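Memo to structure team: turn this sequence into structure tokens by end of day. - J.P.
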Amino acid sequence: MPPIPDSASRHDAPALLIIDLQQGMREPQLGPRNNPEAETRVAALLSHWRAHGWPVVHIRHISRSPTSVFAPGQAGVLFQPAFEPQANEQVFEKNVPDAFTHSSLERWLRVRGIEHLVIVGVSSENSVESTARSAGNLGFHTVVLNDACFTFAKSDFDGRPRSAEEVHAMAMANLQGEYATVLNCTELLTSLFAEPS
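Reply from structure team:
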């Protein structure tokens, strides 16, 4: 991502895509997770984007399964209070992991001339990875923030238990250099406000 000075116009700035930070992600049944400070970092980034008038996109998952915590009518589908969209921020709903599938997200970005995306949220190997893969394949300059995403422990294909840290690390490895640039929040903010050489 090329450096964008603090005085960057809204048109030049990257869009912040906040994926699935809904109340259902707090359910204990989802199991152990990593990056316990991820929401705090996302909230700080959101505040930063809002202060600069940069584009913010909120992604919300609506499950097709009636037993899901993300089924329509469940409290789990609601945004967490810290990430409640403002009137001037865009919201897209999805029924599959990839936020670009069956939505007008790509068109919304293209119409506004947005070429750079910063992706944060949950889950690292699911909606974050899927959306970042599509973003990269569609030609967007995509950054995924390692410390502003999280996931949960799960078993691998062979049935071996994997910690949330392991699942997250593999998701970031899958994306790095192939579909996106993986940074931490400090690296991103330094990059955005670096003086051109």
